[in-house]
Amino acid sequence: MFINNKSDCELLNRLKNEGMDVISIKVPTLLRCVVSVILPLTIAACGGSGQNGETSGADAIGASAEADSAEVVAATNAAASENVSPEIAMKMRAITVQDQSTTDRFIVKYKASSPEGKDTSAVGSKLARLRSAFPAKANHHRRLGIGSDVVTTERKLNASDANAFMRAIASDPDVEYVEPDVEMTIQSAPNDPYYFRQWFLKSNLTDKTSPGIRAEGAWDITKGRGSIIGIVDTGVTNHSDLSANLVPGYMIMGVAPSPGGFDPGLSSGSCGIPWHGTHVAGIAAAQTNNGVGVAGVAPEAKILPVRSLGTCGTGSLADVADGITWAVGGTLPGVPVNANPATVINLSLAQRSTCSQTMQNVIDFATSKGAIVVAAAGNSKEDVAQWQPANCRNVIAVSGSDATYGSWVSSNYGAGVDIAAPAGDIWSTFNSGTGLPAAESYSYMSGTSMSVPMVSGVVALAQAVLPKSLSVAEFRALLQQSAQPFAAPPDRVLGPGILDAEKTVAVAKSGVIPVAADFTCVEAENLMQVTCTDRSTARGGVPIKTWSWNFGEPAYPADLVRSVSVTPYNNYEYAGLYTVRLTVTDANGKTSTYARPVNVPLPPVVDLSAGVPKTFDKFPNDMTYLRIKLPSGVKSVTIKTTFAAPDQTAFMYLKDSPTSTNPACRTYGAGPLTCTVNNPPAGDYYGILTGVSRNSGTVTMSYSS
């Protein structure tokens, strides 16, 4: 039913009074009719038709319709405006859709106590009620193991429509977060009797000619019996070097999971099939001393194949999240619980974005189950801070080295890398099929996808001999403190050194628990401010002596050094991606360093037209940010503010960024207030008012050319 004019509005009122459902009415009509509909309903609810404070059935229907109308209006307003509240902005901060991309899949997390959190049918009903607020019809697809929901739209949305859709979803107070269900991608480049080809398992610390991981010495101590490595990937193929080490896996893709975890190949089409999961599994835990093929890093550990990526090497964030959940023993609807929970999760995959909330949640869940998550830094020769899941908390991020003790040509890098491992020309299990699986074979591949299973294998070896289990932070410190030094500084930051299996396993067996740096950070809702909480540990009995913090701002490069644990914060001058680093040093001089990125977005701003006054009945927030665009050649920019009452005061600033840190102009008082900056740079320029959430007034920003 479509309402287009006054008579339609009268009909709408009559239908409402009769308790009929008109939720499918288009929102522009609803807005035109809202005064005539909601006001009578409110009056009725205040006492007209019931007796002794009771509410009639018609009143209850009216109240429900009023609530639905308000919900639709809120979602519509949020979708239409890029200037949303800090609460809405925080719900969709993790990932935004990039300018050139399209998507029709989203992940929404409702509060567990909400109707939608309790029942997936309520999610579908909510999406139907909000249809008119969305750029395209949305449907509930499935619930993930971590409690989030996959929601699909009937068409692919461009960046503008996708962000509008997420704003509409985030306007619901029962939504914790919403983000696109992005595509994850393998990080490889295709390139016994074959043990001589496995240079990466050897190492010679004296002549520096074989920069491998020193696996042979570790095998004298353990071969990893008792550990289980979950390979969340494309699945595996039948292979005599793998079969004895496989435990039953699962295919976790879409709405029809099935047992197995095998890679079925392609019955039609071609993508240059990488048989990626087979290759990765062989590096981690192929059998050894069996007279066949190659040796895995942890040849007596078990391989748990979880197929969450397609044969061509791509898959959704949602499928990867469910694959991790199942692998560590979590529950999925309609899927038997994994009888062999993974102690290590191998993620030889990546996607260019900040760490999504979905990925962080599932990694935290895996960690809570005692698993160690190892992830590829990526193959784009970029800062790892830009690539998930390596940039998430509670993972070990692995970069790639080469056969000359240098950087593998395409390895990502940066302070967020935890350890390096060989990445170039890695020989492992493969399949000869070009479509469907055929005869087993072996092949070279390159990439940080190959580095990750080496670290996963060493973690499995160490787990087999540990007297006490270690946290992710302690495992990170163990690997770093045991690392082989680079023969010469590599051309980019790859971590503190190259993985050393022998030393790692020896230290693990000794029972020494290393001092371990660890922290979490949160972003303020309405400030470009980050606050971090120290979570470092010293369970080995030697106390931490110093904590050295660095917030990654080029203007303030010096570390903040403290002799006690603190909760530091930093106000950033400009939005962007920054790397926070913490180094702890114990009383014996042992150090541990941990670094992870923080995404500092712009706070919600109000856009103004130059020279046009903007009146506020109440300013949006205690810190209100105003913005105009300056062309080139501007001689000066000015902000003027008047308040409605003489007792209303504020601080006012002008700057090329929405912050009161190092402003170009600053003033304070009861008003009228004026601030002017000469020769400002072209682009966005901001006026900032603080302490104004209870004030009313008029603001004008203008410039002279």
Automatic annotation (TrEMBL):
Provenance organism: Paraburkholderia dinghuensis
Molecular function per GO: serine-type endopeptidase activity
- Classify the source by domain of life: Bacteria
The family line of this record is: Belongs to the peptidase S8 family.
Give the GO terms filed under biological process for this record: proteolysis
Q: Which intervals hold domain PKD? A: 541-605
Provide the organism lineage as a comma list: Bacteria, Pseudomonadati, Pseudomonadota, Betaproteobacteria, Burkholderiales
Q: Which PROSITE patterns match?
A: PKD, SUBTILASE, SUBTILASE_ASP, SUBTILASE_HIS, SUBTILASE_SER
Family matches, as Pfam families: Peptidase_S8, PKD_4
Q: What is this protein called?
A: PKD domain-containing protein
| Keywords for the protein's UniProt record, in alphabetical order | Hydrolase, Protease, Serine protease
Which residues carry out catalysis? D233 (charge relay system), H276 (charge relay system), S449 (charge relay system)
